[in-house]
Amino acid sequence: MKPHFSLRLRVFNLNCWAWEEPAAPRLTAGPSSSDVRRVKNPSSHLLVPSVPRGIPYLSKHRADRMKRLGDFLNVESFDLALLEEVWSEQDFQYLRQKLLPTYPAAHYFRSGIIGSGLCVFSKHPIQEFTQHVYTLNGYPYMLHAEYNRQKDIYLAHRVAQAWELAHFIHHTSKKADMVLLCGDLNLHPKDLGFRLLKEWTGLHDAYLETQDFKGSEEGCTMVPENCYVNQQELEPFPCGIRIDYVLYKAVSGFCISCKTLKTTTGHDPHSGTPLSDHEALMATLCVRHSPPQHNPSPTHGPVERSPLISVLREACTELDLGVAQARWWATFASYVIGLGLLFLAVLSALVAEGGIREIAILLWTLSVGLVLGVGAVYLFHLQEAKGLCRARAELQHVLGRAREAQNLGPEFKPALFLEHQEGYRTEDQ
Amino acid sequence: MKPHFSLRLRVFNLNCWAWEEPAAPRLTAGPSSSDVRRVKNPSSHLLVPSVPRGIPYLSKHRADRMKRLGDFLNVESFDLALLEEVWSEQDFQYLRQKLLPTYPAAHYFRSGIIGSGLCVFSKHPIQEFTQHVYTLNGYPYMLHAEYNRQKDIYLAHRVAQAWELAHFIHHTSKKADMVLLCGDLNLHPKDLGFRLLKEWTGLHDAYLETQDFKGSEEGCTMVPENCYVNQQELEPFPCGIRIDYVLYKAVSGFCISCKTLKTTTGHDPHSGTPLSDHEALMATLCVRHSPPQHNPSPTHGPVERSPLISVLREACTELDLGVAQARWWATFASYVIGLGLLFLAVLSALVAEGGIREIAILLWTLSVGLVLGVGAVYLFHLQEAKGLCRARAELQHVLGRAREAQNLGPEFKPALFLEHQEGYRTEDQ
């Protein structure tokens, strides 16, 4: 980029809640395809994650909502439109055709069995894209997303995902001009996962940073006014919940600010039926050239600050609990498998002796099913424990380094630490 | 790093072939845990992938080999020792204790159900590590690695993996000083996957670059002289195969050369029983400061060169074939499921009518098993098709950009392309 320039970037984000109606895919509501998208646009890195929520009913008026969304995006002509939960590739193709004149670049992110549901439309050419699938994605036998914060059974998974996302941003954005992270994170602003993400990456929350906010109370992105929202789920949150975000940071030689942020308020932007059960976010960002020394958010994460250490410690504790729980379930499942196999052996003996054959065969069938089913549960929790251990090992490593940096005083930046180590085997010529 | 300096880096790599003996894990031989490791050391990025091969027999004399490996690494005192197929965490812990005085930093990479088998020992502190698990990992029902190049059933998966690895390096090494990629890639030097990896990343092959090579004929890393090698598998390759590599590149402001490369030759370094069925690689690399304009390997990949376009095109064709095949299998499986369900309905009717109950129940059991099994096959190939489509979409995007760059002439570097686009919404202040 040229010095002394300013770039205005208008971004749209929406969790579209677009399930295909005829297929009634109850089974596909599992959160197994959560992804992180990364798109490198003219002079920016865009990072767009989404953790699809499980929705046990069909999305309503899908075709009509898609049409109105397309019309709205064409009229507004954003720089970027980032959509989540577009589960049908046909919907993406429909939008692609409709938006082609205004947004010539587009990409649909495929992954897993049901896809990622993520797509991006851009007014500017997309230079590169890449995709990262989370290691842990909740429990396949619990299809419903959890909004209860008191007893969040997904807590360890959320923390591991937030860490993975932060790590992905950290490793892929080192030479970027800016990072933009938009999407439905399924995390409330005070959640451990969200704090971990913000502390480790140094991302800024558009809602907190902007001086010109228009939209729903407290910036909520699921509000009781929206007729598609399950009112019972939102009962503990009278004005709604904020789980969709526009987060950003400038990386080097730039500064970035959020001029305006708007959300829809339970209706479509022209006060009709809502576009989704989530509210749309519309941000205007301003990117400016700035001397590197005034860089407000260091690339390597603010290692020397103690809030980081405290949130890392908290995350480690949660992962410890998660690992213990996963191992408990794996052990429990292995006992059930043992019992099932014993029962099978007894039944086989009964059949061989010529006992009540019919019932024996039926029971045999049932217990084979049980052993196989519990075997799958066992393997799942074994893999869950390994995934959580992996996140914990990475976290502990960072925590160790953060503590070292803190002990060496606030002037001791990670970059210096690096240079210090480089002296090791250096031989001056 | 300081200007005018030179750094000597001694690297050791070995596929350890260390399966735990008492557990006899025939089932664990599947290639489902192939990983990419990334370790950032004093002034380098290390990228270490491995595609574990399926070994249908137990690894022999494991404890003794681990002991001798530890002794050798301690005596040689490399900067980095990179090991693959260390499947038991106990083996890693044993080595860790043994190597602690010489290699104070170490990491074991956990993933999936059986782990990744990867670990790293370093003389210098490890600043960061991250891990990437391949999307596609071969067919779970075919446990044996394929050395036959004429009819390689894994070809599409190998190409997709090579692409994913190249993409990972591309996105994570932009601010690195150097990239080092070591490991058992399960790719021969002329394989499409290997050519794709080299062309897109600009990595250099230590075996081809060094002027001081000592070791097995043609640099082979699985040789018939090794008593652990399955001689039948190697029959088509009289002097062995080369599938383990040390690859490197300098990224910016540095140049790197391979001073020496050694391999073992079917025995351990002191001419005893081999350390593994693979040969070890020992490289001495020399990293020097160099003015940025003499950078031999651009970070963004040599987009303007036509060998890249040709290899990208070839890879696209292979992925097309892979996608078609995966879809064919998914369709075939769905027909079998349909037939199985029909058969079940007929059997249920027979039982209800009071026919030969015993046999009916037995058949019912068998067909439920069949439907469930084929259901799993169906889901697997559906997910395989999506994974291959994803790699193809990324490849096609890069191919498109490479063609554009070529049409615009050889002076048209990707960096200029980027700056060109940045002009778009730029408003000079």
TrEMBL record, chains A, B:
- One Pfam family this chain carries? Exo_endo_phos
InterPro entries on file: Endo/exonu/phosph_ase_sf, Endo/exonuclease/phosphatase, Sph/SMPD2-like
Q: Endonuclease/exonuclease/phosphatase domain spans which residues?
A: 62-278
Places the protein is found: Membrane
Name this protein carries in UniProt:
sphingomyelin phosphodiesterase
Q: Specify the species.
A: Pteropus vampyrus
Named in its record, the pathway it takes part in is: Sphingolipid metabolism; Lipid metabolism; sphingolipid metabolism
Alphabetically sorted, this entry's keywords are: Hydrolase, Lipid metabolism, Magnesium, Membrane, Metal-binding, Sphingolipid metabolism, Transmembrane, Transmembrane helix
Give a GO molecular function annotation for the protein: sphingomyelin phosphodiesterase activity
Q: Which residues cross the membrane?
A: 328-352, 359-380
Topology class, membrane:
Multi-pass membrane protein
| GO-annotated biological processes | sphingolipid metabolic process
The entry sums up its family as follows: Belongs to the neutral sphingomyelinase family.
The cellular component terms of Gene Ontology attached to this UniProt record, alphabetical and capped at eight, are: membrane
If you read the UniProt record, what top EC class would you report for this enzyme, in one word?
hydrolase
- Please give the catalytic activity noted in the UniProt record: an N-(acyl)-sphingosylphosphocholine + H2O = an N-acyl-sphingoid base + phosphocholine + H(+); 1-hexadecanoyl-sn-glycero-3-phosphocholine + H2O = 1-hexadecanoyl-sn-glycerol + phosphocholine + H(+); a sphingosylphosphocholine + H2O = a sphingoid base + phosphocholine + H(+); 1-O-octadecyl-sn-glycero-3-phosphocholine + H2O = 1-O-octadecyl-sn-glycerol + phosphocholine + H(+)
Q: What is its EC number?
A: 3.1.4.12
